[in-house]
Structure formats: C-alpha cells, structure tokens
Amino acid sequence: MDALQKKRKAAEAALAFIEPGTKLGVGTGSTVNCLIDLLPSVRSNIEAIVSSSRASTELLENEGFEVSTLNETGDLDLYIDGADESNKRLQLIKGGGGALTREKIVAGASRRFVCIVDDSKLVGMLGSFPLPLEVIPMAQSFVARRLLKMRAQPVWREGFVTDNGNHILDIHDLAIPNPLEMESRLNEIPGVVTVGIFARRPADVLLVAGDSGVREMRV
Ligand code: 5RP
Q1: How confident is the model at residue 98, as a pLDDT?
Q2: Can you give the pLDDT at residue 206?
Q3: Ligand 1: which atom is nearest the Cα of residue 196?
Q4: Residue nearest to atom 5 of ligand 1 (CA)
Q5: Which of 7, 83, 141, 204 has the fewest beta carbons closer than 10 A?
Q6: Where are the domains of the chain?
Q7: What is the DSSP string of 68-83?
Q8: Count of C-beta atoms within a 10 Å radius of residue 214
Q9: What's the CA-to-centroid distance between 100 and ligand 1, angstroms?
Q10: Domain at 131-196: CATH code
Q11: Where in the sequence numbering do the catalytic residues fall?
Q12: Tell me: the pLDDT tens digits for 111-126?
C-alpha cells in the first residue's frame, strides 16, 4: 500500500468518530483532503464545521459545506487533523503545510482530537521532521538569531506567507526529548506566534494506517 492509500484508510477510520450532532473541526493537508472527500457520506451527522485553513475551507465549500467560524460555533466536539510526526504519547509535530496556528487554536477548542496518519509518521522521538515556527515577519531575523544561540538550525520557508500574514522558520536537526518543555521554551521567544509542537494539547486518539490495517492508539 502506498502512502496515499494509507492516508485514505486513516481518513476512512476517522468517520466513525463523527456522531450525530457533531460540531466538527477540520485540519489541513493531504490526509485531511482524503477526509474532506469522504465527509459528504456523513453530512447528516455534522451540525457545524470549522476549518483550520483557507485551503481546507475551499475544499469543504466545493463539497457543499457551509464553513462556520469558531466565534460562531463556540467549542467543538471533535477535531480531525493529520500530523508530520507523532510519538507514542500522541505528542505531535504539525505545520508542514504552514497552518499550525489555526490548527492549534481549533485543536485547543475541541473536546476530542483525532489525528490521522500513515505509519511513516510514528516516531520514537520528535524532531526528524523540521519543526515549523510561525513568526511575525519583523521578528524573523531576531527569532532566527535566538534559535542559533540554542544551537538550532532555522531555515526560512522562502516565499511562503501563512493565512495570518506571517512567515515560517523550519528548525532542522532538533532532537526533542521533552516536547512539553521545548514547546514552552520556543513559545517564549518574542515574535514567535506558534510552535509546531502539539504537546500541551496532544491528540486524544491516533489512527495509524499501515499495510495490515488501521491501528487505534490512545495515551
Ligand atoms: C499542516 C499540517 C498537516 O497536518 C501535516 O503537515 C501533515 O500533512 P499531510 O497530511 O499532507 O502529510 O500540520 O499544517
């Protein structure tokens, strides 16, 4: 099974979590795109839908969904999103698609976070995937200098502007043995809007698709 087939399997498995009356948050990325393709099959169970990016909003609208804002819906029942990496405590790296800030907001506003991945995303320690930081443009060089002092290797995601008008620095070769501590430490640098570590708000359920099927993991 190739990666896209696994992503489809993980997305299919997530449909079971969408119960009647669900206020649903939808993430961003190729795995979530598979979910969006399938959402019309559970349309009658969805009371309201909130998206974490302009890209997902457009796809949802193409499927005929009216996308609400989080301000309109209040807290959500369920958030479904992909990830770039997960450890076995369901702490994540997210933001490969640059939507980390809205993803973190929607995840934080949701009672349950179901994360859908193919098995290549499950790692022993977070950090092989470059860790995205969303930064205020005027602080980009300052933040990069602070990261260099921490012996981190920031690389500007050139030409990329987030939905919030900010920039992304991807930190390469950063071992993250303590995701909670690293999330807080990086968040404290002035000018950092969001760190792509989801440890304070990890996933509640991880659906990992592999050759032998979809494994459900919980902490
Ligand atoms: C976007 C994200 C995505 O969830 C993450 O990059 C995984 O993407 P994909 O499903 O395409 O592998 O955090 O900001």
Answers
A1: 97
A2: 98
A3: 13
A4: 83
A5: 141
A6: 3-123+200-217, 131-196
A7: BPHHHH-SEEEEEE--
A8: 18
A9: 9
A10: 3.30.70.260
A11: 103
A12: 999 999 999 999 999 9
